[in-house]
Amino acid sequence: MVNDVEKRWNDPPMLRRATRYVLAVLGATVLGAVISLVWASARPRCLDTHSMLCDAAARAVVGLVPGGILLAGGIGALVLAFRAWRAERAWPIWQGVAWFLFTLMVVYLSIVGTQG
User: Fold this and answer.
1) Mean pLDDT for all residues in the chain
2) Run of H or E including 99
3) What's the whole-model pTM score?
4) What separation in angstroms does the CA of 65 have from each of 23, 58, 60, 90, 95?
5) C-alpha 90, offset from chain centre
6) pLDDT value of residue 70
7) What is the Cα–Cα distance from 71 to 83, expressed in whole angstroms?
8) Using alpha carbons only, how large is the chain's radius of gyration in Å?
9) Chain-centre distance of CA 84, in angstroms?
10) Distance (Å, rounded) from C-alpha 17 to C-alpha 80?
11) What are 2-47's pLDDT values in tens digits?
C-alpha cells in the first residue's frame, strides 16, 4: 500500500484521464442545460410570456437536470478515486475532480435557485 505521507502522486496519464472526465461531464452538463432550456421555452404555457422560465416546472427542470449531471459526475469521480486508491494509484486527482464538480453544482444551483 502507498504511504499517503510520502506524496508521490505524480501520474500524468491519470491526470489526462481526469481532465477528459471533467470535460466530458461539463459537456454533458451544457448539453443537458441547453436541452432543458429549449424544452422549457417551447412549452405552451411559456409561449405566451416573454420568459423562458415561466412556471415552477420549467425552473425545476432547468435547475435539476444540469445539477443532477454535475452531482452524478462528482459521485462518479469519487468512485474512481476509491478504485484508484484500491489499485495504489494517484487517487487525490480524482478527489479534486469530485470537489470541483460538486462546487460547480452548488454554484449553479444557487444561481438558478435565486431566479424566479
Assistant:
1) 86
2) helix 92-114
3) 0.85
4) 17, 11, 8, 31, 23
5) 21
6) 97
7) 18
8) 18
9) 20
10) 11
11) 565 556 667 889 999 999 999 999 999 999 999 998 888 877 776 6
Domain boundaries, the chain: 13-114
Residue whose C-alpha cell reads 484500491 in the numeric block: 86
What pLDDT is recorded for position 1?
Answer: 54
Q: Whose grid coordinates read 424566479?
A: 116
Query: Residue 57: pLDDT band by 50, 70, 90 thresholds?
Result: confident
| 40 neighbors 64 (Cβ within 8 angstroms) | no
Torsion of CA 42, 28, 106, 112, to 10 degrees: -10
| Residue-level pLDDT at 31 | 97
- 94 touches 80 (CB < 8 A): yes
Cα dist from 20 to 15, 23, 58, 71, whole Å: 9, 5, 31, 17
Q: Which residue has the cell 508521490?
A: 8
Which among 35, 31, 56, 32 has a CA at the least distance from the CA of 46?
Answer: 56
pLDDT at 19: 96
